[in-house]
From TrEMBL:
Name the UniProt record assigns to this protein: IS3 family transposase
InterPro entries, sorted: HTH-like_dom, Transposase_IS3/IS150/IS904
Species, as recorded: Labrys neptuniae
Residue spans crossing the bilayer: none
Pfam hit, one: HTH_21
Residue span, HTH-like domain: 23-77
Length: 147
């Protein structure tokens, strides 16, 4: 047997990387973000590692913050308003009105109500009025009752 420690037998030298200056690191990060624009500092650090540049993630974060290389945050909401339509746009009649007592201005938005929901609500309202003996004129067909 060879008188050699096991760790020395299995040791594999890794190639030493040259120390990168901050300006060189910024150019590398810019190249990565040109290819992959949604990458933040963690993914950029991993990509630098894949390309053979061992850089600490804290240094990458500091350099990206100093150079203004942050990612563009994704929108976390869905755009629901479609302003590009041919329908008339009605003016806001109460733009400059400041109510001085309650029950002056009432506002409702039926944008996302389903027609069946509205029909059920109106039929329930009409049935309550007719139970009280008030006249109700129905202009919509009755919805079938659930089984």
């Amino acid at each position: 047997m060879i008188d050699l420690p096991r760790s020395s037998f299995y040791y594999r030298a890794t190639p030493r990387t040259t120390k990168l200056s901050d300006t060189e690191l910024v150019t590398l990060i810019e190249d990565i973000q040109d290819e992959l624009p949604c990458y933040g500092y963690r993914r950029v650090t991993h990509e630098l590692c894949r390309r053979g540049h061992l850089v600490n993630h804290k240094r990458v974060a500091r350099v990206m913050r100093a150079a203004g290389l942050g990612i563009k945050p994704r929108r976390r909401y869905a755009r629901t308003t479609d302003s590009n339509h041919d329908s008339p746009i009605y003016p806001n009649l109460y733009r400059n009105l400041i109510p001085d007592r309650p029950d002056i201005v009432w506002v409702a938005d039926f944008t996302y109500c389903l027609p069946s929901t509205i029909r059920r609500a109106l039929s329930g309202w009409a049935s309550r009025l007719s139970e009280r003996g008030l006249p109700v004129r129905s202009s919509f067909p009755q919805t079938p009752q659930p089984r």
